[in-house]
Structures
1.
Amino acid sequence: MAKDEKAPEGDAPKKGGRRKLIIIIVAAVLLLGGGGGGAFMLLKGGSSEETAAPAPEPGAVVSLDPVTINLADSHYLKVGIALQATATAHEEPDGSKALNLAIDQYTNVEVSELQTAEGRAKLKEELTEKIKEAYEQEVMAIYYTTFVTQ
């Protein structure tokens, strides 16, 4: 019986060694898999930026005459806009669409919204997107040449 009692003790360290080996292998696989996944995501992110359409090249800048727009609470905004056309634009953009969109954008806006940089930036961004759409992406940006509130 003494031999039988020692045999299970001899097997116990082997089972514990196997468990440690399995744990180490699983940990290594997880680390390598995580590192590989992270590298894949980084490389994938870089390649999508490379395949994105290049930014349009700037073309002519067309300045429009300033217009006065009624704001809320009997206030006024005098705004002048310049349109930055793309180099691929067929002709210089006619400003009538842009002025109409500007009037629609700013009519009845609160003066307090135009007095903060964030408010002006938000309204300008919205107006820029509307103008880009109206000019079928032949205008890439707008610039304020005049911006006076009263």
2.
Amino acid sequence: MAAKKSTADDPSAPLASARASAAADPGELAVRSGEDPWTAAEVAEARDSLTTEAERLRGEIAAAEEALTGLMRDSGDGAGDDQADTGTKNVTREHEMALATNAREMLYQTERALGRLEAGTYGLCENCGQPIGKARMQVFPRATLCVDCKQKQERRF
């Protein structure tokens, strides 16, 4: 029979216990020491902001995909184009592809934030399980790491 690991030996224990307590009462979102608790109005504002952002991003993705479709259709075989025209078309196409990719990533992050909000884990660091901070979440609602963990992550790259 395998020995059960203690929570002290399990690095994911703080996050798991924080998630369990947050999931037990989703109205109580994590805050840092000294911060006021989230109010219902602040939670609703965060949800509305994220929902609006997701809708905007979906529209941006659709527009970029439509533009790419048009660019691909109009590009033809390039016969008769001079090098400048071909280069311009390539740069425009790459720019539209980059915009669509960026919008997709932002949409993914936004939808994850909405999921964490619904699960009651919004505002908890995905690395250490400690509160990210209400002020940070209000400024950057897609944050998944506390400032300390984010700084450590950036130093690794």
3.
Amino acid sequence: MESIPRAIGRRLAAYLSKPRPGYERLSRLPLQDIMDTLQPADIVLVDGNSHISTAIKYLTQSTWSHACLYVGAEKADVEQPSLIEADLNDGVTQVPLRKYEQFNLRICRPVGLSAEDKASIIAFARARVGHVYDLKNIFDLARYLIQSPAVPVRYRRDLITFGSGEPTRAICSTLIAEAYQEVGYPILPEFIRVENKKGEAVSMARHFTHYVPGDFDLSPYFSIIKPTIEHGFSLSAPPQSE
């Protein structure tokens, strides 16, 4: 029998996943062009339009509210399940790029990562397909949607609860960060400044649960990939639209 907190968490997750009106996809790039550009272990960032996306973007001060790991497909087809993600309702699953056709997307690519490390990262993520989403953090996110408090920018990110850290539970960015940390690849500088119980500022190693989707965009170790630039374009010909 499902526990009461879990049942409440699932209902809250369903509400938070509902789309908000007024979202606009700014990119006019064909989805297939994005698919043709992706390489194994690339990270696809999503500018979501759900209630929880609004909370994540507010607290992290970022455009990006969701992250997926590209693990490859038999052919470059937007219908092929090629992305591993941790979804609020479905847990860790493998989904097609088509799922995010109506959203603004960004490709982040690790620089200098070996083929062996890419394979290890993908294997790590695939081994976690079927794990459930860590609902521990959604109550805090919901609170900021309901109350809409005025929180100083420098404190917003610190107010996110990053989950329980249990091995069978995950949220989108921490799943990917943990996979990268397993092969020793950095995302942001290794140490962060935090306050101890005495209120003193101390340095501590950055744990994979400290990462949010926008960190891959800000990372000095990932390149931002633009499909139009990667494939070449003509200044005399207008770009094709979908």
4.
Amino acid sequence: MISKIEVEAAACIGCGTCWVACPQAFKEDDIGDDLKALPTGGLGDQLMMRSAAEGCPTLAITLLDEAGKAIYPTEEARAALSAANSW
């Protein structure tokens, strides 16, 4: 079960997928000329939070369980992104 959300601001490109998919858990932050995602501090529907994280094109969103272990992105998802970026 997801109990915490972290967003890596440097990786976020501000596409908006997360805050549109799950506004209870994500919000947009205007940083100068850029929009970045931030966690709201609250949690939304588990499926919607997972969908938002999986929809992030840069894997900037990390979903953590109660023990602080990463639920998503998985090592497989990170490897797939790395492979896609290396072509």
